[in-house]
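Entry for the shared binder. Reason: the reviewer on the internal report wants the predicted structure included alongside the sequence.
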Amino acid sequence: MRILLLLIAIIGTMSLSSADILEDLECHDKVVQDGIHTLTFPKEVEGLVGATNVDHFISNFGSKAHAPTWNSVAYFGGRYELSLQVNISVNFENCTVKGTTGSATVYLNEVTRIEISTSGGAGARLKGGIGGISKLNEHDWKKLIAHAGDWSVVNVPIVTNAPPIKDFDEYVRQGRAPIRNRKEGFDEPIKRAFEALRSGSYKTNVLSADCPNDLNCYDRVVCYGKAYDLPKEVQAFFGATNVDHFISKFGSKTQTPLWHSVAYFGGRYRLGLQFPMSVDYNKCKPSGAMNSAFMQIHEITKVDIRKPGNPRATMKGNGELDEGEWKWFLKNKGDWSVVKVPIVTNAPVRGFDEYVRQERARPLRVRQEDFDKPIRRAVDAFRYPTVGANGK
C-alpha cells in the first residue's frame, strides 16, 4: 500500500491513458533533474545528509487544482526521516522549473520502532505521531544550513550516539523503492504493453471472454474483467462460487474505478483483490489495470449472531500481498507460509457461513461502497502534502 500511495503522489492528476502517463512521467523526471541543478533547497538537503540518501520528486504534477510541490525526502542517523517541501512553478512545454512560488517547510520525524508485517511490509512508529518531532520554516532551515547542520541552533534534539533502529534500513528500502525503481517497475511494463497494443502484437484473454450481448454496460465490464489473469487466479484458487467480482465508482467522471475480487475461505478469512482500472465506456470493456494489484487478507475472529438475519463480524488485518507475492504464493501451491501470512486451517468461526451468506446478499451498491472506502483516499487523493514527512 505504501508503494501505491507514493506512485499516486508522483503521478498526481495526469491523464489516464498509457501514452500520456508515460509522457507526463518523462516530463516529471526532466523537471526533477532540472530542479536538482537549479533550485537551492535540493542541494542543501543533499549537502546536509549526502546526495545518495536523498530522493526528489514532485507531487501534484500536472494538477489543474493544486500547485506542484517539490519534495526532497531523506533518511539519516538510523532513525530519522526528513522531508523538505516547497511549491514550484513548472514550464510544462520545456519540462523545466521556473522557480519556487512559496516558502519551504521541513518536516522531521524520529522513528522509534519498525514493525514488519506478516507479508513483509515495514511500518514505523513515530515519536510525536504523524506530525513529527519538528516542523521548520524556511528561516529555521536556512539557520540550520548556515550552522553546518547543527540541529541545536533550531532547538531540535538529534540522537547521535544510539544504535540505529532495528530494521530501519528495510523500512528505508521499501520507502524509497517506488521512487528509485519506478521506471523498471511501472514505466517500462506500461511502455511495453502500449507499444504492443499499437503494433497489434498484444493479445489479451479478456477479448476471448464469452460475454452475452444483452448484458448492461456494468455487467459486461465485470464479465470481461473476470477474464484478466488475477481475478481468474483468485477464482481458480478459491473456487468460482466462493468469489464475488465487482467494480466501485463505475461510471464516475471524477473518481477512478476500482476492481474488487472478494473471496471467503477457511471458515474465518476474507481476501480482497483490488486494483485501479480504466474503462472504455463506449465499448463497455475494461481498458486495463492502471497500477499493480494488491490483496488484503482479514481474519474474522467472531460473528455475533444474536440478531437473526444481520450477523456482525469482528475482524482484524491478517496480511497484505502485492502482485509478486501472490504469484510466488501460487507457484508454491498455495503455501501461505512462503508469503508470511499465518492461516489457521482447522478452526472455523461459529456463524461464519451465515455471515458470508448475509454479506454476499447485501445490495451491490452497499458492498461496492464498503470495500471502496478504506482505500479510496489512496486511489484518488492526488494531493499529498506530507509525503515523506510521516513515511506512510
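Summary line for the report: The radius of gyration is 23 Å.
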